[in-house]
Specification:
alpha/beta; 199 residues; methyltransferase; transferase; SAM-dependent_MTases_sf
């Protein structure tokens, strides 16, 4: 089970329009299922940093960190960046995030200056996650700048699989959320987590 503290902290009902699109929150349950599967298959490398490109309220950074993965999130929206930082502070205080790195930075995840400001190289990330937000440009950046064998996880509600030049499609996880969200009173729809690797 996901920590109840994580479920309580992140409502699925929060949406926000930003300059780069609409923030639609990822389902913690679906992403947790995907992470467990991908960790068991050694697809996500625990020894390499994880990036949530377009991290919104910080939920995936918090989830990855709570599972022992050093995690960074980049968000362009000022309000969401502040919310994500606040959420991580609260989760540390609750003991959900302990010693594992969990960092949030405001910036453009396709811009090299963002990584300079963060004091980390884009090439350092072993796994990069995105939820259908500027994902084509991110895929181009991974194909151009990331190290070989970098994993790109794309979470989508769309049944149509994307193909990206320079990345190899490994497989797709079709997952259903097992929790009802009291804030919207509906079951969260099925989600697809697609796994790509830079060749």
């Amino acid at each position: 089970m996901i920590s109840e503290k994580l479920l309580d902290k992140f409502s699925m009902g929060y949406l926000k329009e930003t300059d780069t699109g609409i923030f639609i929150p990822s389902s913690l349950d679906i992403i947790r299922q995907a992470f467990i599967h991908l960790l068991s298959k050694d697809i996500i490398d625990l020894d390499k940093p994880f990036l949530d490109a377009g991290c919104g309220d910080g939920r995936i950074v918090a989830l990855a960190s709570s599972m022992g993965i050093a995690s960074w999130g980049i968000e362009s929206d000022e309000e969401l960046t502040a919310l994500a930082k606040h959420n991580l502070i609260n989760l540390r205080a609750l003991g959900v995030i302990k010693e594992t790195t969990a960092m949030i930075h405001r910036g453009n995840f396709c811009d090299n200056k963002t990584y300079q400001d963060m004091n980390i190289e884009f090439t350092d990330f072993g796994t990069i996650y995105n939820y259908d937000n500027n994902h084509e440009n991110l895929a181009k950046k991974i194909a151009k700048d990331a190290k070989p064998k970098t994993i790109y996880l794309l979470y989508s509600g769309d049944e149509v699989k994307e193909d990206f030049s320079g990345l190899i499609f490994l497989h797709e996880l079709a997952l259903a959320n097992r929790f009802k969200d009291a804030s919207i009173g509906l079951e969260v729809p099925q989600g697809f987590v697609r796994v790509y690797i830079k060749g």
